[in-house]
Amino acid sequence: MNERLINELVFKFIRSSGSGGQNVNKVSTKVELRFNIISSQVLDNREKSILIDRLGNRLNLKYDLILTSDDTRSQLKNKEIVTKRFIELLKDALVVTKPRIKTKPTKSSVVRRLESKRKVGMKKKDRRKFD
User: How many angstroms separate the CA atoms of 15 and 28, rounded?
Assistant: First the structure.
């Protein structure tokens, strides 16, 4: 699945900002990764809807997921970094979380809670003035 998914990625190379001297003005080392969720052939409809739901704030109006990297001065390393970031993001978004099972408090914990409430109430009652 990874190979087919990586084939659907669109990479764009841009001039990076920051340090690098003349090199930064000549070489396009910043990498922009684009992945269109809707037009993907690898993902099924369920996975697409999960991704749109969970990554909605990272998508543009055309449902493109855009990630960038200008961490290093090497275009190849930046491409590897942004690809790894993309794969991790997809894996994390597609993990199905188990629903939490509600549990009842044990009888002894209920008794302890009520006993401590009673003690606090008695303490407050003892602070009152006598008539």
Answer: 4
Element (H, E) at 34: strand 30-36
CATH code, residues 2-94: 3.30.160.20
How many degrees, rounded to 5, is the angle at CA 97 between CA 44 and CA 110? 160
Query: 3-state DSSP helix/strand/coil percent for the chain, to nearest 5?
Result: 50, 15, 35
DSSP 8-state code for residue 59: B
Residue 131 DSSP label: -
Distance of alpha carbon 112 from alpha carbon 117, whole angstroms: 9
Write out pLDDT tens, residues 8-39: 999 999 988 777 677 777 888 899 999 999 99
> CA 79, CA 3: separation in Å to the nearest integer?
15
Q: What is the pTM of this model?
A: 0.71
Compute mean pLDDT per 10 residues along the chain, 131 residues long, and list them.
84 83 81 93 92 91 92 91 94 90 95 97 90 68
C-alpha to C-alpha distance for 82 and 33, rounded to whole angstroms: 7
